[in-house]
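Worked problem 6 (solution included).
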Amino acid sequence: MLAPHSFVVRMVQASIAGEIDYMTLRHRIWAAAASVAPALGTVGPAAAHHSFAPYEPDVQFQLDGVVTKYQWLNPHVYIEMDVTDAQGETKHWLIEGANPGILNRVGWKWNMLSEGDRISVIVSPLRNGEPGALLKALRLEDGRIFSNGGPAGPARIPWDQAKDAAP
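Solution. The predicted structure is:
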């Protein structure tokens, strides 16, 4: 099969040589362009997805708290949790996870978290200091540990030794 640009070049050469007329050439070029356009349209949505740039990749810490909301949605799973610090102040955190397809492949289930569940997470925080973070790993109250899948990168700190670094 000819590449689209090779096809156009061949059609122009055929027209110049008198092998096909101008109207046939024009219709064939438009048909080729119309067949390629849908494939090009799929590039936009994929390129529009955001990166991990809002998060601090070199900083990880552990948060222990209570789930206030769990959203198993595309394009990302979100966990909202209340975290109480050593001074007794509670802060509401929004934790961004991978998409449900990736999480399914690493063992997550859509119904594994509920409001009121106590969990621990290892996260990379937002660069702007707001209480939001990218999930690296999740530990349930029963001790089971789940990663966030490959794209977000692994937790690089040990559990229960990382609590001191949390803001």
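Discussion: The CA atoms of residues 136 and 148 lie 5 Å apart.
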